[in-house]
Specification:
This protein is α+β, with helices and mostly antiparallel strands. About 25% of the residues lie in helices and about 50% in strands. It is built from two helices and seven strands; from the N terminus they run αββαβββββ. The strands form two sheets. Strands 1-7-6-5-3 form a five-stranded antiparallel β-sheet. It has a two-stranded antiparallel sheet with strand order 2-4. The longest helix is centred in the middle third of the chain and has 16 residues.
Length: about 100
């Protein structure tokens, strides 16, 4: 069931503004980014992926992007998180899932 839902959301921007708080170095921590993406998917499609994996933290600068991957059962999909706004320690970013999924 979750695999079908992940496929259905591919190619659309899922989140217009995921909130995150920045570290002292003005970055969104890896764990916070992954959690925020999973939370956004839960809100957007009503189901949570098994996991979201990002390679590291993202700079809290408008326009910064991070490639991540979500897993749902045997399906994986790439996604891009983009920082949209930064207001003090509040960072908002959008998430777009790739058009193509990787099935194992």
């Amino acid at each position: 069931m979750l695999r079908r839902v992940v496929v259905a959301v591919c190619g659309i921007a899922l989140v217009a503004g995921c909130p995150a708080h920045v570290e002292v170095q003005r970055k969104v921590a890896k764990a916070d980014l992954e959690q925020g993406i999973a939370d956004a998917l839960q809100r957007s499609i009503g189901q949570r992926p098994d996991s979201v994996t990002c390679p590291g933290s993202i700079d809290a600068k408008v326009g910064q992007q991070m490639r991540c991957e979500l897993s749902a059962g045997t399906t994986r999909a790439g996604l891009t998180a983009t920082v949209n706004t930064v207001n003090g320690s509040d960072v908002r970013y959008s998430v777009k899932v790739d058009d193509h999924v990787i099935c194992n």
